[in-house]
Amino acid sequence: MRLLKSWVSSANSKFTEFPLNNLPYGVFSTTKLEKRCGIAIGDMILDCRAVEEAGLIKFSAGTMFKDPFWNNLMKLERNEWTRFRKEITLLLSLDTNPEKLINMLIPQSKVELHIPFVVSEFTDFWSCKYHAINAGTMLRGAENALPLNWNHMPIGYNGRASSVIVSGTNFNRPWGQLKRPNDTLPFLAPSKRFDFELEIGAIVGSKSNGPLTVQQADDIIFGYVLLNDWSARDIQAWEGQPLGPFQAKATATTISPWIVTKEALIPLQCGPPTRENELLDHLKDCGPMFYDISLTVSLTPQKGKPSIITQTNYKEMYYSSAQQIAHHSSSGCPMRVGDLIGSGTISGSQKSERGSMLELSWGGKEPLNLTNGGTRSFLEDLDTVTFHGKGTKEDFTIGFGNCTGTLLPALKYPY
Ligand code: CA
Known catalytic residue: 388? Predict the structure, then answer.
């Protein structure tokens, strides 16, 4: 596939993240326009509500864009997702006369972006082997780093949809019950070991009822976003004996504002990693369901300059989102339109490729030197963490935009 040419000239650069090949879905507002669905093209946004009101796109199911979220389209059959994408591609292509559409474009510099879909439920996995080995080594030693079940199934836990926020939404350092190894009793205090987790989230676009094959699970994925699963390591260490994350990961989960559709990611697909052991039939690989997407994390202290602290790739995953969803459904657990499935922290084999402060500072024992001055073991107040993700082909780039958030100081506890 080559770069598709658009009459929106900024979309024709080899370097733009939003060429006609991408067309990611977001929700925006301006000082004049209330919240609505839009599609990024070059440095502009196409106002979907205006396009629909002008009769340039139609759905037999009725009006699709009167609400400021994408769930109405997600609810439709997969062939409707494809048809819509084809029609938008045609409307924005170089062969189309832009006369009717030119007033429906808004510069991205003039908008505020909002969460693009209503999140039904949030499940987070732990499916990157480098991360699992790093975390396991710190907890149990190198000999027992991976639990016995790890090579047989994607391990996960059910998180909270209520605290999923869009990039740019800041939040306060959480309070929690803490107990360090030498404390006799636990105490309530702001987390001192607050962290980010570099992840990608898959968005479920069709509901299911009953077990799904890996192929069926892949078929219900609507698109992907960057995801920061903020984590309080000290809350997690005390509460997680023995159950999985609870308050440690309930404060906030940040997602990038653009849903990059699965169709846009097809040119970046790649095959599975080498398997340690044969997977059970319901999880067997059945096609290229991994993606070559380079990921970076930068950390910017208050009034400081950004330092790139991690560079890795989404293809480092051991289990795909499709395998995670197939496993999730194996008990009969239904999937809903708008479910968000976190990949788990993405780390590479190298030290510079680690996707969390826990790993970068090795549990706080080896503080990380920031390239622009200072050191960090965990996040400090007013640190900004920004993820960036993109995949490149010969003459075009598919990007996700930024996923960013600033950690504000803890508020006074309300009593
Ligand atoms: Ca996580």
Answer: no
> How far does residue 15's CA lie from ligand 1's centre (Å)?
30
Q: How far is the CA of 342 from the centre of ligand 1 (A)?
A: 7
Ligand 1 centroid distance, CA of 303 (Å): 28
Tell me which architecture the domain covering 122-408 has in CATH: Alpha-Beta Complex (3.90)
Catalytically annotated residue among 131, 327, 328, 388: 131
pLDDT digits (tens, 9 = 90+) for 326-366: 999 999 999 999 999 999 999 999 999 999 999 999 999 99
Task: State the architecture of 9-114 in CATH terms.
Answer: Roll (2.30)
C-alpha span between 404 and 238 (Å, rounded): 28
The residue extents of the domains of the chain are: 9-114, 122-408
Please choose, from the candidates 143, 303, 314, the residue with its C-alpha nearest in 3D space to the C-alpha of residue 225.
314
Give me the pLDDT at residue 58, please.
97
pTM over 0.70: yes
Asked if 321 contacts 104 with a C-beta cutoff of 8 angstroms, the reply is no
215-224 confidence digits (pLDDT tens): 999 999 999 9
Q: How far, in Å, from the CA of 37 to the mean position of ligand 1?
A: 28
* Angstrom distance (rounded) from CA 111 to CA 161: 25
